[in-house]
Each structure stands twice: as C-alpha cells, then as structure tokens.
Amino acid sequence: MKLKKWLYYLIKLRDKIFIPFAILYILMAALGIYLLEPKTFESYLTSIYWVLTTLATVGFGDYTPVTDAGKAYTIFLYISGIGLVGVFIGKVINSIYLIDKLKMGGKMKYTGKNHIILIGWSAKSKLAIEEIVKSDKKIDIVIIDDVEKVPILAERMFYIRGNASDEKTLLDANLPKATGVIIFADQITQDNYARKDPLLVDGKTLLIATAITTIEEKYHKSIHVTAEVIHQNHIPLFKHVKVDEFIPTEEMISHAAVRSLFSHGVTYMFSELMSTQYGEAMYEIPKHDEWQTYRDAFFDLLSKGATLVADRGDLHINQKLDDKIPDNAQLFVICDKETLEQLNTNTIQ
C-alpha cells in the first residue's frame, strides 16, 4: 500500500515538474550551442530560436552548426530532445483542454470584480441576462446553478456550479467583489414542490440570502441583493437577512392581469417601465445641487426630456412639488439612454 502511494506521489510530482524541466532544458540547450558556436549564433535569443526549430523538427536551415562539436551537439539534441518537446506540446494542449473542461463544468473560480451574480438558471435568468447586456455590455455576469454544463455560452458570461447557500460556492463566484446579486426562485422546487408546500421555494431563497448576509458581514462588504419571492406574505421572514429589494412574483402578475381588465393596455406600460426594449425605461439619477425642491427638479428634467416619477418608493412627487428634496434622496426618472447619459454628463461637469 505504501509503495502504491509512493508511486502515485512520483507520478503527480512528475506532472508538476515536467513543464519547468522542459523549459529549463530548452534554455540550457540554447546556452550550450551559443557557447560552442558564438560566431554562428550571434545572440542567445537566436540560439533559443534554433533549438526550438530543431526540436520541433521544423528546421528552416537559416542557422546551422558548422563545427564538429556543434554537429555532435545537434545529434545529442535530436536524441534527447525531440520526444521531450512532443510531450511538452501535448501537456500544453492537455492543460488547455482541462481548463476549458473545468470552465464548461463550472469548476473554475471567477476572479473578476464589479460583476453581477445571477443565482438560479431558468427562462427568467435568460431574460435577465438580455436586459443586463442591453443596459451594460461591458459588465461580467456570473451564473450560479447546479446544472452539469454551463447553461449559456456568451462573451463575459461565467458559470459556477454548486449550491448557492454554500459559502464556498459564493466565494468561487467572488461574491465580496460583486456589484449586485439577483436570487431567482428555484425553478425545480417551484415546479415539483410549490403546491405541496409553498414554503419550500421561498425557504430556499431565504437560505441563500442568509449565506450572502454571512459573507457580507465576514468581509465587511455591502452588496445590493434583489430576491424573487413567490408569496408576498413570506417577505417578513427575511427580516433577519439583508435583502435590498423583493420581487413578489405572483402578486405582481395578478395585479397586472387584473388592472389590464379595468384599464386596457396597462400591461404595455408595465412592460415599458420594466424593460429597455421600447427605448425608454426607469433610471436612477443623482440630485443636482441647483435643485432645492421637487418642483425645481421636475421642470428642469422635463425640459431635458426626462420625467421625474419617484423618490425611492414615493410615487407622489406631483403632490409635493414644493417640498425640499432631502440630501439622501434617490430620484427616479423615465427617459431614454441618450437623455440619461446627458444628465449624468451634466452632473459630472
């Protein structure tokens, strides 16, 4: 048993030291021919080039040894080095294959920052990705789920496979350096168990939110978390964890459906507010120094092509135009992206 362990250790050690050994062999071989024939190989870089072309059996013939010592040295390189380079190339190709396999299987850690994490893969996740890309094409998106292979292949898209309530999985997704997290209700639990026990779906979301809160406290980070809940009456259960915003799925769908009966076409308005596909959407803007009251902000924004609609969750701006805007105001407007960029540019200036 000890012999088997020792042999296994030697095999692993061989794999670890092979590539460094191959590089050292090439450098030493280049040094050898450089010392033997400095007139033929006028620089050390030239000798490295010759060794590589020789061992790769390319043999351009632009540099060749002219002395007997140099020719004997070349024969030695043929015997000892050609197989080594072949194995070296094979190792490199195999390493690339393994890296690609790990990435496809969600086993590679994400090391970037300022990314968005989507927890749970479903049709809603796919639509969310499309919406994120429309809003910011340069941001990285990390998906956490437990499917066998990466659910979507796209630029700036990364996959971490694992249980999102597990700290290691969240750290593999580099949660402490993320801009925000969206927790989608688990689709499998929702499809198979929601009717038997309505608590199960939102209960899993609560576990994930708890794990995120634990990491935030541990690393002293504040990350914006949005969670989808199936039943609005479950939201109070989240009071001990940090979730910034909730999406009560069933209540929102029911409300929109009912309002569409009494106010035909209202769902188009909801769709426009929640999506950028119509050109205009709701955006947050910073408070300008020259705005003292909501009236100042309302008419100034209106003249620039934007409509002030809310301060945080307060939608009654039109009833309090003469009220002073608080310093911690969080203003939301409806406008197109060009207008938003203009407003942000004016703020910076």
UniProtKB/TrEMBL annotation:
Biological processes annotated in GO: potassium ion transport
InterPro entries: K_chnl_dom, NAD(P)-bd_dom_sf, RCK_N, Trk_Ktr_HKT_K-transport
Presence of the UniProt keyword Iron-sulfur in the record: no
Primary location group: membrane
This protein's record includes keyword Transmembrane: yes
Boundaries of every RCK N-terminal domain copy: 113-248
Keywords: Membrane, Transmembrane, Transmembrane helix
Topology term for the membrane: Multi-pass membrane protein
Record-given protein name: Ion channel
Organism: Neobacillus novalis
